[in-house]
Design goal:
Belongs to the sigma-70 factor family. ECF subfamily. It is a single chain. The protein has helices at residues 16-38, 41-58, 68-85, 88-91, 109-119, 123-134, 139-146, 150-168, 171-174. Helix 1 (16-38) crosses helix 3 (68-85), helix 2 crosses helix 3 (68-85) and helix 7 (139-146) packs across helix 8 (150-168). It has 2 domains: 14-87, Rna Polymerase Sigma Factor, Chain: A, CATH 1.10.1740; 108-181, Orthogonal Bundle (Arc Repressor Mutant, subunit A). It starts with 15 loop residues before the first helix and ends in a 7-residue tail after the last helix. Helix content is 65%, strand content 0%. It has 181 residues and is an all-alpha fold. It contains 9 helices and no strands.
Length: 181
């Protein structure tokens, strides 16, 4: 009877090593993008893991490994948007005891302001702003990631920035926006 290799005994497919390298190099970045989208580190970890699982399953079929970052970011984004389309009550479970709340990460006041303001945006506007200004993607790249037209990206960005300006007031001008756009 042939023996099967266990996950602990090493790679079980020819692409495992290549994927493991990619995972090690990019998991943190994907998790950071997910955090900017959802505002919760635990949920961001779940989004990044779900995206990396989907990427692993598609790995053998991917012809262009030079475009992996864009593809992985698109998976994170689509997973986030799909979660937000589901009814909120399906995600929440009532219990008789309050959940354990982890100690907050050492965030600056600036980070907290940005995260609170981003959380107030509609998911699609938030996605546009994260991709455009935090991931520093062009309008065209953002449109491709979201599967929409460039005009939609521009209008969503304008509406999102207007909402941020209204929410942050005088703090908005002091915020350093990557790319200065």
């Amino acid at each position: 009877m042939p023996s099967r290799s266990s996950p602990a005994s090493g790679p079980s497919s020819p692409w495992d090593g290549e994927f493991a390298r990619y995972f090690g190099e990019r998991a943190h970045s994907l998790r950071s993008t997910a955090y900017l989208l959802c505002g919760d580190w635990h949920r961001a970890e779940d989004l990044a893991q779900a995206a990396l699982l989907k990427l692993y399953l598609a790995w053998p079929r991917l012809a262009r490994h030079d475009a992996l970052d864009a593809y992985a970011r698109k998976i994170v984004l689509r997973t986030f948007l799909a979660e937000n389309r589901r009814s909120r009550w399906k995600r929440e479970r009532l219990t008789d005891a309050p959940p354990d709340v982890p100690a907050p990460a050492a965030e600056t006041e600036h980070d907290q302001l940005i995260q609170q303001a981003l959380a107030a945006l509609a998911p699609r506007q938030r996605a546009v702003l994260v991709l455009r200004y935090f991931e520093d993607l062009s309008v065209e790249e953002t449109a491709a990631a979201l599967g929409c037209r460039t005009g939609t990206v521009k209008s969503q960005a304008a509406r999102g920035l207007a909402t941020l300006r209204a929410r942050l007031g005088p703090h908005f001008e002091a915020l350093p926006v990557p790319g200065g756009r």
